[in-house]
Specification:
Structural class of chain A: mainly beta
Chains: A mainly beta, B alpha+beta, C mainly beta
Protein name (chain C): LSM2-LSM8 complex subunit LSM8
GO molecular function (chain C): mRNA binding
Largest sheet of chain C: 5 strands, antiparallel
Radius of gyration of chain A: 16 Å
Number of helices of chain C: 1
Helix content of chain C: under 10%
Shape of chain C: globular
Organism (chain C): Rhodocollybia butyracea
Distance between the termini of chain C: 22 Å
InterPro entries (chain C): Lsm8, LSM_dom_sf, PTHR15588, Sm, Sm_dom_euk/arc
Oligomer: heterotrimer
Domain Sm (chain C): 1-75
Largest interface: B-C, 26 and 34 residues
Radius of gyration of chain C: 13 Å
Strand order of the largest sheet of chain A: 4-3-2-1-5
Chain lengths: 93, 96, 95
């Protein structure tokens, strides 16, 4: 892909271009969320709005492990960067 | 620095801080420092029957590094301003 | 970190990285937020019995270990019957 057409030269450019768009964030502790990105910094601290968080709760059973999923919504959320594994821009289809 | 400034604009607003030990504490944001250590006044702990440990605590100081999330009052966050400030800070970072 | 000044000579609750809860009077602190407590006690929570208070006396807690410092409302704290409280200990911090 041509660098000049996307404006993406380094990883943080990808996040910058996702400002005011819905992003997917994967976090430590089997957590994921989507939300509209409003701010970030070099630590990957984030501020998101209209957040839906998904927590995967794995419980080891006798035979197999079962995964329970808990979801919750939050209006406006600060996410501390040390918990962030990846930030993915909205799918452009 | 940007996030620190955002928190400073939210002093005296009610926030909910969720820690990395799953404790959630709601209170009035009294101050924040560059490490994002947070001081809350007039606190209540979510699910106090399960977590009675802080029953008699009125205000507290939370170490920034143990914060997972902070739920902010959306009506006091200017998202357009945030995005502009973020773009500006991103630019100064790369120009270095 | 200067904001710890307001807690000096106050009865405080410290919550540590490993989930322990320690109460005492804050005698002092330093820049690394190391804290000295006087007349301190650890409060051990369990579901089987009431809260057990283990006297620790004069205690120095390393700043890195402290995740939360809370000012105790002394009248409220004394009104609580610790022997009637059943609760799991707080979980440790998981990064």
């Amino acid at each position: 892909m041509d660098v000049s057409s996307t404006g993406i030269q380094e990883p943080f450019d990808l996040i910058r271009l996702s400002l005011s768009e819905r992003v997917f964030v994967k976090l430590r502790g089997d957590r994921e969320m989507t939300g509209i990105l409003h701010a970030y910094d070099g630590h990957m601290n984030l501020i998101l709005s209209d957040v839906e968080e998904t927590i995967m709760i794995v419980s080891e059973g006798e035979q197999q492990a079962t995964v329970n999923v808990a979801k919750r919504k939050m209006d406006m959320l600060f996410v501390r960067g040390d918990g962030v594994i990846l930030v993915s821009p909205p799918s452009r289809t | 620095m940007l996030i620190f400034s955002v928190f400073k604009t939210l002093t005296d607003q009610q926030v909910t801080v969720e820690l990395k030990n799953d404790l959630s504490i709601t209170g009035v944001l009294k101050s924040v420092d560059q490490f994002l250590n947070i001081r809350l006044d007039n606190i209540t702990v979510l699910d106090e029957t399960r977590h009675p440990h802080m029953m008699a605590v009125k205000n507290c100081f939370i170490r920034g590094s143990v914060v997972r999330y902070v739920q902010l009052p959306a009506e006091h966050v200017d998202t357009q301003l945030l995005e502009d400030a973020t773009r500006r800070e991103a630019q100064t970072q790369t120009k270095r | 970190m200067s904001s710890l000044q307001g807690y000096v000579d106050r009865r405080v609750l410290l919550i540590l990285q490993d989930g322990r809860a320690i109460v005492g009077v804050m005698a002092g602190f330093d820049q690394k937020s190391n804290v000295v407590l006087s007349d301190s006690k650890e409060r051990v929570y369990s579901m089987e019995e009431g809260v057990e208070e283990i006297p620790l006396g004069l205690y120095l807690v390393k700043g890195d270990m402290i995740i939360l410092i809370g000012e105790l409302d002394e009248t409220l704290d004394q009104a609580v019957d610790l022997s009637s409280i059943r609760a799991e200990p707080l979980p440790p911090i998981r990064y």
